[in-house]
Amino acid sequence: MVESVFLPSEGSNLTPAHHYPDFRFKTYAPLAFRYFRELFGIKPDNYLYSICKEPLIELSNPGASSSWFYLTSDDEFIIKTVQHKEAEFLQKLLPGYYMNLNQNPRTLLPKFYGLYCIQCGGVSVRLVVMNNVLPCSLIMHYKYDLKGSTYKRRASRKERGKASPTFKDLDFQEMHSEGLRFDADTYNALMKTLQRDCRVLESFKIMDYSLLLGIHVLNKKLKERGSRGDSRRQGGQKVLYSTALESIQGGGKPAEPPLDTDFDTMGGIPAKHKDEKLLIFLGIIDILQSYRFIKKVEHSWKALVHDGDTVSVHRPNFYADRFLKFMGDTVFKKIPRLGSCQKPDVILSSAHLDDDMKFTEVDLATETSTECLKQTVLKQRDICATVSAITLAFLLLLIQKELRQTLFETAKGTPLFLHLKV
Questions:
Q1: Would you place residue 21 in the very low, low, confident or very high pLDDT band (cuts 50, 70, 90)?
Q2: Which of 210, 219, 228, 279 has most Cβ atoms within 10 angstroms of its Cβ?
Q3: In angstroms, what CA-CA distances link 134 with 87, 131, 211, 285?
Q4: Beta bridge partner(s), residue 214
């Protein structure tokens, strides 16, 4: 369903006059997105107030896409331009997206609140409204766009020269080589949420998504604030399940961060890196890329030149497994529990863990070994298929050459049976 409104510059019975050229405004799936907004506690008047009250704030785009990003003045919503194919794909996702949000509103997946199109002078600009992952009222000392791949996953020189650059996977391994450490319960909840979200994306055949990670370093002497310290988020949260801490917690009581109660944590997840205390903000972004034919061709081409397992574009199931392994082994680490147990934490039985997290470190090692073996078999299968294709092409060339030579000799009078080889 699409709602369309024409807005002439001179105005009409339904629209006011304005100083811009005539344009048409389209709203896609209005009922579905209205339900999503109600699910997250967003009232229609607050939604319009956030978007229309003050001019939008333009943000830089650290990625390779040509999308434009805008932030509402109250720090609640991100407005992103999307391509026609992405807008179509989002509309196809809506039934499955609806079911997933019904079953689990606490997720790190993007929360879409509206899809629109502005048509003016033969040009169509499509916009999607989403939740804002990184609050601007806190300074993000580090920002990362993580995929779990290594091929060309380093911030460019131009990006590094920005005031607030967004780094990538190889940069993280250099700058935070020891990973970000969480207490056991937070780590388990975070990885469980990531695993559930990745399986949802895999079922939709989605890949090439990223984890947007913001790190605020706490300083007891001086608590740094962003340039918009009077943001409405500080006055009270307006959108439900919008913070990182809410997104990974279940129905139990919220975890209490070991921080000064006078300091507004903005829903960040407490973590540590070496001797630094951190607040972590994160969310999965760029989920509107499906494993279509063009992506398959891109992976095959890059795999001929580089290791196919290191490039970003890959099969959805392999991409999800590689993504989770990188997050669970490299980015996020578990702080060992300090207790009176004589045995180390790695051999705790499943009875000591959450009912929802029935695994041990030994189980993880077994699963990792099994996964490595599976990845090795898949990689060898890909190599064999490539070699077979090359060999077949080479044999075809030899056969064609042999056939041409045979026909040439036959034309000169040489008997054909002399050229047949046993």
A1: very high
A2: 279
A3: 24, 9, 12, 12
A4: 143, 281
Tell whether 369 is covered by a domain: no
Q: To which H or E segment does residue 203 belong?
A: helix 184-203
Q: Based on the domain organization, do 154 and 127 belong to the same domain?
A: no
Closest to 105 (Cα-Cα) out of 184, 34, 38, 165: 38
Relative to beta strand 57-59, strand 269-273 is unpaired
Contact 237, 213 (CB under 8 A): no
Amino acid at 388: S
Only one residue has tokens 């609140």, namely 113
Burial class (CB in 10 A: 0-12, 13-18, 19+), 355: exposed
Three-state SS at 127: strand
Contact 184, 332 (CB under 8 A): no
- In angstroms, the CA 37 to CA 23 distance is 26
Q: Do 239 and 99 lie in a common domain?
A: no
d(CA 333, CA 190): 11
Kindly state the percentage of the chain with pLDDT values over 90: 46
- The closest alpha carbon to 153, from 161, 144, 162, belongs to 144
- Higher confidence at residue 115 or residue 63? 115
List the beta bridge partners of residue 181.
Answer: 272, 333
Backbone angles phi, psi at 243, to 5 degrees: -90, 160
Q: What share of the chain is helix, strand, coil (3-state, %, to 5)?
A: 40, 20, 40
pLDDT in tens, 334-379: 988 765 343 444 333 333 334 444 433 434 444 445 555 556 555 5
Q: What is the distance, to the nearest Å, from the Cα of residue 387 to the centroid of all Cα atoms in its chain?
A: 33
The total domain count for the chain is 3
Quickly count: other Cβ atoms within 10 Å of residue 24's Cβ: 14
DSSP secondary structure code for residue 329 in this structure: I
State the Cα–Cα distance between residues 313 and 290, nearest whole angstrom. 10
Greatest alpha-carbon span in the chain: 101
